[in-house]
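Figure 2 data, in text form.
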Amino acid sequence: MALVTVPVAAGHGTLAPATAEAGRTQAFELTVPGDRLDADVVGVALRVPAGVEIVSAEAAQPLWSVSWDDEGVTWEGGPIDRGGAGTFRFTARMPPEPGPIELSLVERYDDGVAAPFPLGVAVAGGDAAGGDSSDRVAVAALLVAILALIASTAALALSLRARPPSRT
């Protein structure tokens, strides 16, 4: 079985790996940049779709607390300094069926603004539905890449809208 790495929306978080096996437990690393120059990230929430179960979570930074439930995992504290990045680790059990899944990353800033961004995972699996597993993974990877492109475009639009006008 071939696993394909899929690009994820840069600038508002990356999830590695971007692939996982259906029905299996997978360790993930979420990297969140402090990309706003006017506020620090003080909360990170990752919401998971039905069929995905958070098994455990930890925070690499000693200033963060972490909790999780059926809806996802939340880290509070920090901050992620402006221009810096924070790394968060969690383990999740993937759904039993292969295909793309979308998680929702919400970064909460110290000014109260919270912005959601999609992160995709291509879930590969056995040959239960017929066809070659690597073909299904490639299609799932393409769908996740499309989601990442849409998310990147939305993030760019939001960041351009959030910037104060230039005074020249």
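Caption note: Confidence is low (pLDDT under 50) at residues 1-10, 127-133.
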